[in-house]
């Protein structure tokens, strides 16, 4: 699983011209599912994200996690995070999970996030417009393939 994590002051998702999800201060997670991922990968990603110390304390240092600040989470599925650009100019998505597997792991991941913080989500498989105010900017990439 690969996640792009952005610290946001606010973020929202629009589908077909309608806002379907919005959060205030917290984390926007763009989540891609690899063809070999399973629930262990989802657990690793979720635990890592909610405990990342990327929010500033009273001294302006990144010492606080999403849990510490009581922030919100917006999760958006994004299979393009698994794109390979090694050959040619057109990305291939051979490493991405099938839509059925990816949708199940996406939903499972969202249910895990909900155990920690208020969680909103995009709509799997839909074309979405994402609006955000990235605070910092702080953007971090996490891959479950990198776990110890």
Structure description:
- The protein has 148 residues and is an alpha/beta fold.
- It has a single domain, classed as D-tyrosyl-tRNA(Tyr) deacylase (D-tyrosyl-trna(Tyr) Deacylase, Chain: A, 3-Layer(bba) Sandwich), CATH 3.50.80.
- 22% of the residues lie in helices and 38% in strands.
- It is built from 3 helices and 8 strands, in the order βββαββαβαββ.
- The strands form 2 sheets. Strands 1, 2, 3, 6, 7 and 8 form a 6-stranded mixed β-sheet that branches.
- Strand 4 and strand 5 form a beta hairpin.
- The longest helix has 16 residues.
- It is globular.
- The protein starts with a strand and ends in a 5-residue tail after the last strand.
Topology:
Blueprint: E1 2-15, E2 18-23, E3 26-32, H1 39-51, E4 55-56, E5 62-64, H2 66-69, E6 72-77, H3 99-114, E7 119-121, E8 129-143
Parallel strand pairs: 3-6, 6-7
Antiparallel strand pairs: 1-2, 1-3, 1-8, 4-5
Helix pairs in contact: 1-3
Q: Using DSSP, what is the number of strands?
A: 8
Ends apart, CA distance between termini:
14 Å
CATH top-level class: Alpha Beta
Rg from alpha-carbon coordinates? 15 Å
**Average of pLDDT:** 96
Which quaternary structure do these chains form? Answer: single chain
Q: Which ranges are low-confidence, i.e. pLDDT below 50, for 5 or more consecutive residues?
A: none
Question: Which strand-content bin applies to the residues?
Answer: 35-45%
Which homologous superfamily in CATH is the superfamily? Answer: D-tyrosyl-tRNA(Tyr) deacylase
The CATH level-2 architecture is identified as 3-Layer(bba) Sandwich
